[in-house]
Design brief:
The chain is mostly beta strands and 226 residues long. The protein has 2 helices and 18 strands. Strands 1, 2, 5, 6, 14, 15, 16, 17 and 18 form a 9-stranded antiparallel β-sheet that branches. A 4-stranded antiparallel β-sheet has the order 9-8-7-13, with no helix packed on it. Strands 10-11-12 form a 3-stranded antiparallel β-sheet, with no helix packed on it. It is globular and about 50 Å long.
Length: 226
């Protein structure tokens, strides 16, 4: 019996060790997540699998949400994953305001610290959106202070929470919104997100499959930075 146990451990111990290392790596260092919804369209599409840098803002104790060390705060424009303050579900959204900012929306456009965030016209995305989307959409680029310009979309047929605030973001919190502004349950619904709930920063699309069109690969999105 003892010999059999030793043989079992000898054969399977390397596998268990590798599995433990992999799980620890995914828990604390980096991971990739499948995107099930279109709330971040057109930046991130349903069926994208995004790579998340879990060391972007600090180090968490493996398999917990306890932060062991912190070395950077999120910046406006970062795309972050986090546990929803409403129900704990993992979400992915864009940081539009950080602690101390005053933010509001008027007619679907952001106001930050008393000034309208600049917008420019943008072109439609190269890849089709979800078949159930209600056309037409308006395509814009939003120029957040201190962050790169990024695309957002508006759907006039279903305006949602286009007038909101003003509110002041508490210290050590962020306000997050979806880039699909009229089809996103975000900070306008569940409030501010504490830094401690942030899991990491999304860096790139590893691969993308169009589940609504027979899981067809979207080759142009493979390896695309965010």
């Amino acid at each position: 019996m003892l010999t059999a146990v030793r043989r079992y451990l000898r054969d399977w111990l390397p596998t268990f060790v590798m599995l433990g290392v992999l799980l620890t790596f995914r828990s604390s260092l980096a991971d990739w997540y499948d995107i099930p919804s279109g709330s971040m369209q057109p930046t991130i599409l349903a069926g994208d699998r995004v790579v998340v840098n879990k060391l972007a803002y600090g180090l968490k104790v493996p398999f917990t949400r306890c932060q062991a060390a912190a070395w950077a705060g999120p910046q406006r424009g970062d795309i972050v994953t986090f546990a929803s303050p409403a129900d704990g579900e993992r979400l992915i959204k864009r940081v539009v305001a950080i602690g101390g900012d005053q933010v509001a929306m008027r007619d679907g456009r952001l106001w930050l610290n008393g000034a309208l965030v600049p917008y420019t016209q943008d072109s439609p995305p190269a890849h089709p959106l979800q078949p159930g989307d209600v056309p037409p959409h308006r395509w814009l680029r939003e120029h957040l202070p201190g962050g790169p310009a990024h695309p957002v979309m508006a759907t006039d047929a279903r305006p949602r929470l286009r007038d909101w605030g003003p509110v002041r973001v508490p210290a050590a919190h962020v306000l997050v919104l979806g880039d699909n502004r009229d089809n996103s349950a975000d900070g306008r619904v569940f409030g501010f997100v504490p830094y401690a709930r942030l899991e990491g920063r999304a860096e790139a699309v590893a691969l993308s499959l169009d589940r609504d069109r027979g899981w067809r690969p979207r080759w142009g999105r493979f390896g695309r930075g965010l």
